[in-house]
Amino acid sequence: MTYNQLTGPLPPTIFNISSLQYIYLFGNILSGNLPIDICKHNLNALHLNDNMLSGEIPSNLGRCPKLHALYLSFNRFSGSVPREIGNLTRLEDVLLGNNALSGNIPWEIFTTNIRTIDLSSNILQGSIPLTIGTSRNLVSLNLAKSNISGRIPSTIGNLQYLSLLILHSNKLIGDIPSSICNLTSLQYLHLSSNNLEGQIPNCLGHLSKTLGVLHLKGNNFRGPIPTTFSKGCTLQSINLNGNKFDGKLPQSLVNCGQLEVIDIGNNGIRDVFPYWMETLLKLRVLVLRSNKLNGGILSTSTDKLPFPKLQVLDISLNQFTGPLPSGYLSNLRAMTVVEGRRIERGNWFSNYQESIVFVLKGVELPVMRILQTFTTIDLSGNRFSGTISESIGNLNSLRYLNLSRNSITGNIPSSLGNMSILESLDLSSNQLVGKIPLQLTSLTFLSLLNLSFNNLVGQIPQSSTGQFPTFDNSSYMGNSGLCGFPLTKMCGRNEVRPLPPILPQGDDSGFFDGFVWQAVVLGYGCGFIFGTTIGYFIFRYGRPKWFVGLFFNVQ
After folding, report:
1. What is the three-class DSSP state of 396?
2. In terms of CB atoms within 10 Å, which of 33, 156, 361, 542 comes out highest?
């Protein structure tokens, strides 16, 4: 009876059925409390997740000796996690996430048979019990967003079958214990958004033969990134953003042919552009923003198809120099093919449960789910020079382009008008010259345009359709040579030719030849004097009577 929109409280009488062993009522709108006498008979599985149940989880659950699955996540339960759960020697799965549970994590729940524990998204307190090491059959532990603190216990290294370790968004401190190297079955390690520090163990590179996701974003880790990613590496996503890593990018990542996401932004990495990543054929997201990367980027690649699936490239806020690599960018195949692309409503990133921050339309936004159609290039905040090549117009499936705060010169290429689905274009704070190409007015999806603080001249292109009429002064400020709407500076006669007035056509058109403003003023003046005189006589003497009768119906 799952996902049937059942409402109201859970009937206590159903627990009186002596033959009842499995209850599957998840995905409804059930409310109220759980009955106290829930374990009168041989209950094996209780699946009540995704409802609106509230109150405390009854401690009498500890009297269900045959219970092996307890699914109460995504409800409104409060109070503490019953320590009596530890009495259930057959219990394998405890899913209590996304409730309002409080108090400490009871050490009793870490039994020898437990396989899955999910207490995520609650308001717990205290640390992870040391007894976690006794749960040698534990496969999945999810304590994300549960407000826990303290250190990751070293006894976690006893969990030889642990596959998923999800502890992100808490208040954990200290180092990653070296005993984590014993977790040879680990596939998913997510420790982001804590207060962890120190160097990360080199063994994490060796674990990459099983590890698919390594997320350590938003901590205080320092030192070099391990260089021990060996052949046969199965990593699909690595996110080390927002730490204090230094040194160089580990070239051993080239052994991780399954990589789709690399985010090492906001660190202190000193290196050059990683051409060696071009061979990562499945790489879709490369974020290296806000590091100390330097040097130039080749105008063309030695590889015919560099980064064949790359759809997100963010190397902003670094120290890159030399000519803008327009030619290199124009060969990014995933951003140059728009016709015939299969648009998927799903996404390939949601399984990683990690947001990536992008500057979109001038605002930093965290993006959790990246669609196959999401494409962006951000080279802002570097020292690129030279001109923007016409070849950049080949990126006809690009949605966001940011080249601001560089030293780019020359004209804005008219080929930008070929980027038919472009939503944001930021070329501000450069040294661009010339006029704004009229072709930009054809970009009907463009919702942000920033050309401010350049050396552009001439009239701003006008269009009665598309997005151009919606852009205000901020899109063009700092260009003293620009004029026309929406700026207050009007264009001179040599720059703006007003359209001639449309006059009536036909034989009588000559009548208007002499109809100038002087004649209009003369007519108004004479009419005013005549009307004032007549009005005076009418109201003073009531004459002439025929005129008064005509207008005021006086006999």
Report:
1. coil
2. 156
DSSP 512-550: GTT--HHHHHHHHHHHHHHHHHHHHHHHHH--SHHHHHH
Question: Strands 356-360, 363-367: parallel, antiparallel or unpaired by DSSP?
Answer: antiparallel
DSSP state of 206: H
Tokens of 247: 């040194």
Residue ranges in 81-125 assigned as alpha helix (H): none
Containing 222, the helix (H) or strand (E) segment is: strand 220-224
Nearest-CA neighbor of 283 among 264, 266, 302?
264
Q: What is the pTM of this model?
A: 0.83
Q: What is the pLDDT of residues 498-526, one digit of tens each?
A: 333 332 333 333 323 333 333 333 444 44
Give the integer Cα–Cα distance in Å for 384 and 297.
9
* pLDDT of 334: 87
Residue-level pLDDT at 543: 46
Per-residue pLDDT tens digits for 308-362? 899 999 999 999 999 998 878 888 888 886 544 444 444 444 445 566 776 666 6
Whether the CB-CB separation of 202 and 228 falls below 8 Å is answered with: yes
In sequence order, what E strands does 355-399 have? Answer: 356-360, 363-367, 376-378, 383-385
| pLDDT at residue 37, rounded to an integer | 81
3-state SS assignment for residue 443: coil
Task: Give the C-alpha distances (Å, rounded to integers) separating 410 from 65, 321, 327, 478.
Answer: 78, 17, 16, 17
Position 157 scores a pLDDT of: 95
Biggest CA pair distance of the chain? 118
**Alpha-carbon distance 548 to 406, whole Å?**
81
**Residue 492 confidence class, pLDDT cut points 50, 70, 90:** confident
Tokens, residue 150: 């303290």
